[in-house]
Amino acid sequence: MNSRSSKPLSRQQERGQKILQAATQLFSEQGYHHSSTRQIAKAAGVSEGTVFNYFESKNALLEEIIKGFYERLTETAQDGLHERHNSLDQFNFLAKNHIRMIAADNFLLMRLLAVYFSEHFNFYLDYQNSSIFKHSKSYTRLFDRIIREGIARKELRKDIKLSAMRDLFFGSMEYGVRSLLAQLEPGENQLSDRKLRQYAKTLCQPIWESMKVRGHEHQNRRELEICERLERVAERLEGHL
């Protein structure tokens, strides 16, 4: 189910994808608990028995959808980071991309994670052995890489407690998404790219400031100004599309 793969899907894989897509759509529109495997089968154009041939339960479908979200989150982040060549730009991009992806499809990932945690009462007792943790870890390693490279470039302090900063970063992003969700107007289910970018920057700046090496203020300020100019250009271009 990797979108990077150039190999055509087999008939069996295509059927599994259709079932996942149907489940994702129904979970988004009706909610997990109001979507039956019979409805999923009908939407996918297969029998209910076929659904269970691919996924042992509706809960297994839920887990596979969440894993797919993390794979796409990691993939889009990797692509964007590859195009950026300084730590501050990468740091800001990771934040914006995280919020954008989490907020997509009417905040579907957050809603599904809430269901997953409620269905797995003992999840946190065996968190590190869960498949969700493994996919999450692959993604959060990207943050670790940005910080380590920033330290190697002497842009960031050597004494940074990486695990604490990682928790602060992603914790801020997760809470930020909830805050943005509360700010949606009636009937509005998507946030503008401009609002996402501005909010990500607001959350990121104090975290970055706490990590950077003193004496690099001018350089980092210059980098931030360049990023802001590029963002304004992007906003103008978006306005003409």
From TrEMBL:
Keywords: DNA-binding, Transcription, Transcription regulation. PROSITE patterns: HTH_TETR_1, HTH_TETR_2. The keyword Transcription regulation applies. Residues 13-73 form the HTH tetR-type domain. Coiled coil: none annotated. Gene3D superfamilies: Tetracycline Repressor, domain 2 (1.10.357.10). One of its GO terms (molecular function) is transcription cis-regulatory region binding. It comes from the Bacteria. Residues 36-55 bind DNA. PANTHER family: HTH-TYPE TRANSCRIPTIONAL REGULATOR BETI (PTHR30055:SF234), HTH-TYPE TRANSCRIPTIONAL REGULATOR RUTR (PTHR30055). This is AcrR family transcriptional regulator.
